[in-house]
Recover the amino acids of this structure.
């Protein structure tokens, strides 16, 4: 018999997860479209009743984004400029109606290569908090998303929060997404950039690209090339020619591998320009 449970507390949810296998649902904006007309054959654990899992809180050392926090919550939350890329990504998640219910943890656990939230969170060195009845642990986001639709979450664990160290929540950031149309579209390519600029010189750089590999990824070679450079137009020029060996785009109905790779260079350049406070000059046509 298929079970449905809607616990009111985190402890109740963790107890249930320790008993048997469950499909965890929060916003359900990925689950139901994928399910279609097929009958549900999994036990459903609906965590929408757990108020403690929603919201953004600040501690002495971290920003904590609860697993059930929606994209609309993130858009409306006053956060440092380092989170601007995440807010911009939040505005690209479907429509406002979807943003009102879709959750940040659901976006990560669905583990799509085109998950809009991942590149911005990678530039923030975000960690995923996982809890079970017996223990809790923190994984870098880069170690949590393992591949297309695969994560490091164990069956008895629940993602409870996304953690961003205050040391990483510094600088300015920007997000750029390329799709076949403006709204309600899966990315062809997307990029996030976070820069720390002091006295006109790039002191630190964090650059990530999504939808151009099985898992969204940072670009450490480019990051190193940007550090020590003046925060001017040359940053975008560097991005346009920089090697990006971490990317392995595919051909599909949204674009060819070659187009995606070219687009990645262009949108990275645009994200860097925006993070540096420079007006856009590089355009990409879908």
């Amino acid at each position: 018999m298929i079970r449905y449970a809607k616990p009111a507390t985190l402890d109740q949810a963790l107890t249930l997860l320790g008993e048997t296998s469950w499909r965890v649902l929060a916003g359900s904006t990925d689950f139901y479209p994928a399910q279609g007309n097929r009958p549900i054959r999994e036990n459903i654990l609906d965590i929408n009743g757990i108020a403690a899992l929603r919201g953004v809180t600040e501690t002495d050392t971290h920003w904590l984004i609860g697993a059930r926090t929606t994209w609309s919550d993130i858009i409306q939350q006053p956060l440092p400029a380092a989170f601007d890329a995440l807010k911009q990504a939040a505005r690209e998640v479907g429509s406002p109606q979807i943003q009102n219910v879709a959750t940040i943890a659901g976006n990560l656990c669905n583990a799509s290569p085109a998950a809009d939230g991942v590149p911005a969170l990678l530039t923030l060195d975000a960690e995923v908090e996982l809890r079970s009845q017996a223990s809790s642990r923190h994984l870098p986001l880069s170690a949590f998303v393992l591949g297309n639709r695969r994560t490091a979450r164990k069956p008895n664990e629940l993602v409870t929060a996304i953690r961003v160290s205050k040391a990483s929540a510094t600088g300015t950031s920007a997000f750029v997404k390329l799709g076949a149309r403006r709204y309600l579209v899966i990315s062809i390519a997307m990029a996030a950039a976070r820069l720390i600029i002091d006295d006109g010189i790039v002191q630190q750089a964090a650059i990530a690209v999504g939808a151009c590999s099985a898992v969204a990824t940072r670009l450490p070679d480019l990051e190193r090339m940007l550090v020590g450079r003046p925060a001017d137009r040359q940053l975008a020029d560097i991005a346009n020619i920089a090697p990006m060996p971490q990317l392995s785009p595919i051909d599909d109905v949204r674009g060819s591998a070659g187009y995606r790779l070219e687009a990645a260079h262009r949108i990275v350049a645009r994200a860097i320009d925006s993070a540096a406070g420079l007006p856009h000059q590089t355009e990409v046509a879908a």
About this structure: The mean pLDDT is 94. The longest strand covers residues 189-198. Residues 236 and 273 are 6 Å apart (CA to CA).
